[in-house]
Amino acid sequence: AKTSTLVMAAHKLPLVPTACFAFNKRIADEMAKRMPSHISCSTMNSIGHRVWAQATGKRLAMDFKKSYNTLTAVVKELSSSDRAEAYDSFADILRMISFAKRSGYVPPDKWPTAKPLMTREHFHEALEEPPTLLQSVLVDEVLNTSIRAAYAGTIDFDDQIYMPTLFGGSFPKFPLVMVDEAQDLSEINHAMLRKLVSTRLIAVGDPYQSIYGFRGARHGGMASMQAEFGCVPLSLSVSF
């Protein structure tokens, strides 16, 4: 009923330019059919894609195996012993790379204009297990290669939010922003929201339903959102 709650609220709110963000494209498309015409429904990835395309002046190409292909190329250049170690933890390293982007980690010293959300030390502490030295080196190298490729116009799903939010882009500002499934927003989703909200945020979620910690969902995200944006909590009186 989270989406229905937003739809009912939208029909009672002032007619101001409003952006409503859904968890995925399917939900955004369904929501658009039920929302008033002045409300723009999309995903945060969609708006990030447009902002980064404008920032680079390029027609962006999506490569959904970008991290996999980049890591494969880097591992092939390692010594035989390091290569064997890397292949043993290949899937773990890929998860670390994706988590790095969703957490807002940028390898230090290479990108002076970037605005990372955490240091290397904090990134390592946020992982389920501390990375080995080789894993840490590979994560940084793949991220650096991925960032260069994004500037050249090749991005993946995580880059759609990672690049414009941390490396620069002109975001539209909305008097009202509405967010569905707020409990699942990652650190970098929260950072993007700060760039989009000019006056008011309405977020609907269930803190007990937060199941995407493995994908970078911010711990205690709804409570921190309440404090940051001055939200007034309104709990459902009846829940099924």
Give a verbal description of the structure.
With 240 residues, the protein is of the alpha/beta class. Helices cover 50% and strands 11% of the residues. It has helices at 2-10, 25-34, 44-56, 66-76, 80-88, 90-103, 120-126, 133-152, 159-167, 187-196, 221-229, and strands at 18-22, 39-43, 61-62, 154-155, 174-179, 197-203. Strands 2-1-5-6 form a four-stranded parallel sheet. A two-stranded parallel ribbon has the order 3-4. α10 links the parallel β5 (174-179) and β6. α4 crosses α8 (133-152), α6 packs across α8 (133-152) and α9 (159-167) crosses α10 (187-196). The N and C termini lie close together (10 Å). The model has no long low-confidence stretch (mean pLDDT 91).
Secondary structure: elements and pairs:
Layout: H1 2-10, E1 18-22, H2 25-34, E2 39-43, H3 44-56, E3 61-62, H4 66-76, H5 80-88, H6 90-103, H7 120-126, H8 133-152, E4 154-155, H9 159-167, E5 174-179, H10 187-196, E6 197-203, H11 221-229
Parallel strand pairs: 1-2, 1-5, 3-4, 5-6
Helix pairs in contact: 3-9, 4-8, 6-8, 9-10
